[in-house]
Amino acid sequence: MANTIHVDVVSAEESIFSGEAEFVVLPGEAGELGIYPRHTPLITRIKPGSVRIKVPGQAEEELVFVAGGLLEVQPGVITVLADTAIRGHDLDEAKALEAQKRAQETMQNRISQMEYAKAAAELAEAAAQLAAIRKLRKR
Could you give the CA distance from residue 52 to residue 65 in angstroms, rounded to a whole number? Predict the structure, then answer.
């Protein structure tokens, strides 16, 4: 049997994924992180983007979109605590495009710094969702 590590991806609403994986790749603050079994313990923030999970015996990787959150790596378990998490097959391109458009319009208007920062975060999330959708299409 392949060398595996247990992975849990959860959001405030639900558990998105729980199972064994050969490796996990996700967007960390300083760049993309690749986590394999027996990885050094780690806690870090994650950025909006795709969490790719290689499940043993499955040709396709599981893809989960996260809108930021925390990653905890322990010797036998990887836990992704996401602000928002959406299974790859549940992503909606039309909603993501609309959110991107709204955020861009908000940023173009003369607004407060607080509103601008919020719109910039929403724009980053929408762009990351669209990138995840493009990755799924390439499969």
Answer: 9
